Amino acid sequence: MSADDARAAVWSITSGKGGVGKTTLSLNLGIALAKQGLQVLLMDADLGLANVDILLGVSPDKTVQDLLSGEASALDVVVEGPEGLSVLPAASGMAEHDAWQIEDRHRLAEELGRLERGYDLILIDTGAGISAKVTDFVLASDRMFVVAVPEPTSIADAYAMVKVCQQDAPAPQMGLIVNRARSPREAFALHQKFDQIVDRFLGTHIDRSGYVLEDIAVEQASRSQHPVFVSHPHSAASRCIEQLAKDLSGGLETLKTGGPGLFEKLMNRIAAEI
Predict the structure, then answer these.
(1) Does the predicted TM-score (pTM) go above 0.90?
(2) Please, which residues have CB within 8 angstroms of residue 239's CB and are 6 or more apart in sequence?
(3) Does CATH place domain 8-273 in 3.40.50.300?
């Protein structure tokens, strides 16, 4: 594949269950990856309940809602965040798009296709749950990371997400990120337990992608509408996020230059439903 054919790697961050800190993790991980010198686009794919712009303390002039209505292009919607991170903000209260119609997906796929060659990485912060709005993005990704906290309901919902993705072929490479761990030992134990469950009942394995420690600095940063990686760079959570970014970015170049991209995968999923 020539350099001209290179396209962005696509990672989705999902959870199954809401309230596990997925969006906060996505934003701060995106900033940490951008700080490494990567061109990163963070897409808020929670199309009806936008949160990334709130965590950044910004009020974008245009959102994905304007993109879907044809009133703006993806380039018009993208805003700049910390460390050169680019953000594609969603909108809250998009009731008219709750059904996630095929024309919505087609329009969005076309616009995202125009962005694929402008970035090293497209990082997708999905909505919660396992609806089509979520699974379309997850299954069009090169890698998916399931975020879970050390709670039974979170673990059960993370397993449900992995199970849904395993039913699609080929499934993206999957990893587990443990958030709000009280210690590295607790994170390791959850990784180990989750991998055993997935192996036993689904016959597959999930990467132990990393963890972020429980840290009051995250809550303080959220309340002030600043990413913790920026406002508390030396906090325990920020150090974990920095290490996570270093560990995950190792295989990025290989993904960036191989296989069908986000646009093609989304279009294939649309075609399969027509």
Answers:
(1) yes
(2) none
(3) yes
